[in-house]
Design goal:
The protein is mostly helical. The chain has a domain of 75 residues: Serine Threonine Protein Phosphatase 5, Tetratricopeptide repeat (Alpha Horseshoe), CATH 1.25.40. It contains six helices and no strands. The radius of gyration is 37 Å and the shape is rod-shaped.
């Protein structure tokens, strides 16, 4: 008969295994907090303006200027349909309400009017008028409206 002594409860009331588990858990928590605070300390302070956004704005403006220059040369060369494509790209790239956008719409409207397509011209002239009401558009709008009305009344 072997006499096994029942396991004794430690004098301080906590087993060694539980102490080791708590110490390891405390160390892991401490390391996680150190990593978090290190990441927060290395984060740049203040609002960060993305440099790629600034570069994109600059490159969009230079691309828009390029479309404008190509459109102008095409227009001066008599290639109005190709010029329209370039000025529409300029119009699409500009901010709503900007003078450049209004001028691009005015140019597209004028080119369509020169080609005899007053219905399409009116769309672009009205866009230009909404963007900037100071542009001299009324005489071109009136002549296109008269042509469109005469076409519709003749049918």
């Amino acid at each position: 008969m072997t006499n096994h002594a029942p396991e004794e409860t430690p004098a301080d009331g906590v087993s060694k295994k539980l102490k080791i588990f708590v110490i390891i858990l405390t160390a892991v928590t401490f390391l996680a907090l150190v990593a978090l605070f290190t990441k927060l300390a290395n984060k740049p302070s203040g609002p960060k303006k993305n440099q790629s956004t600034v570069q994109k704005t600059i490159s969009n403006q230079s691309l828009s200027d390029e479309y404008q220059a190509v459109g102008t040369r095409l227009m001066n060369s008599g290639l109005k349909e190709q010029a329209i494509d370039q000025f529409i790209k300029v119009w699409e790239m500009q901010k709503t309400g900007s003078m450049e956008r209004a001028k691009a719409a005015q140019t597209v409207g004028g080119l369509y009017a020169d080609l005899g397509n007053c219905q399409e011209a009116l769309i672009w002239l009205f866009r230009a008028e909404v963007s900037d009401s100071t542009l001299p558009l009324q005489s071109l709008i009136d002549s296109c409206l008269a042509k469109v009305r005469s076409i519709h009344s003749g049918q």
